[in-house]
């Protein structure tokens, strides 16, 4: 079995999330992490900015890895349609490789039109990925519906599955209960709510770490639902040890 795992994700200049969380999580799972960088970030006079890598350069990175045997692929921030298209092409050429898609859509730097275009592009990934891991706002954008209740959460998960996603986990956080973090796992047949008490502390990078952990567990042949359960515990442990810059300081 291959111990190689790939992240296609962005650089967080403060090292809490993005590729830093991905590679740290891979290492914690004793996997050899590879990386194709999708974007850079910087704190400027205009605020926190996402700077896309040229799509041609993204393609060159991915072409360089075409012959590597990956046990899993994790997709993080794809900053625009052009970069997403390159990632999609790579995934389509690795149909036998498990893929975890963290469909990052909510960036304050993006305009509504950009979010809409990227939403449509990300949906194209669904038939080729093993599981998607949106948060509530992303799930609303992807499913094109409001989520105000746990039943709405179920309806959104079903819509996303019907769009082609094999498995869906929607991260509910503290939206429905200020004492519990409630996530929903859907396998196409059964809905399973995963609950844990809310932790204080810095949770920057929690979503990246969660998706990277799921990919790592799947790469090590864990069933998908068990990978999700273990990853929820993994992130909770990471948050409890986080420093000022994010959850990946545990390791």
TrEMBL record:
<dbReference type="InterPro" id="IPR004399">
    <property type="entry name" value="HMP/HMP-P_kinase_dom"/>
</dbReference>
<dbReference type="GO" id="GO:0009228">
    <property type="term" value="P:thiamine biosynthetic process"/>
</dbReference>
<dbReference type="GO" id="GO:0046872">
    <property type="term" value="F:metal ion binding"/>
</dbReference>
<keyword id="KW-0460">Magnesium</keyword>
<dbReference type="GO" id="GO:0008478">
    <property type="term" value="F:pyridoxal kinase activity"/>
</dbReference>
<comment type="similarity">
    <text>Belongs to the ThiD family.</text>
</comment>
<keyword id="KW-0808">Transferase</keyword>
<keyword id="KW-0547">Nucleotide-binding</keyword>
<keyword id="KW-0479">Metal-binding</keyword>
<feature type="domain" description="Pyridoxamine kinase/Phosphomethylpyrimidine kinase">
    <location>
        <begin position="12"/>
        <end position="246"/>
    </location>
</feature>
<dbReference type="GO" id="GO:0005524">
    <property type="term" value="F:ATP binding"/>
</dbReference>
<dbReference type="GO" id="GO:0005829">
    <property type="term" value="C:cytosol"/>
</dbReference>
<dbReference type="GO" id="GO:0008972">
    <property type="term" value="F:phosphomethylpyrimidine kinase activity"/>
</dbReference>
<dbReference type="InterPro" id="IPR029056">
    <property type="entry name" value="Ribokinase-like"/>
</dbReference>
<dbReference type="InterPro" id="IPR013749">
    <property type="entry name" value="PM/HMP-P_kinase-1"/>
</dbReference>
<dbReference type="Pfam" id="PF08543">
    <property type="entry name" value="Phos_pyr_kin"/>
</dbReference>
<dbReference type="GO" id="GO:0008902">
    <property type="term" value="F:hydroxymethylpyrimidine kinase activity"/>
</dbReference>
<keyword id="KW-0418">Kinase</keyword>
<keyword id="KW-0067">ATP-binding</keyword>
<protein>
    <recommendedName>
        <fullName>pyridoxal kinase</fullName>
        <ecNumber>2.7.1.35</ecNumber>
    </recommendedName>
</protein>
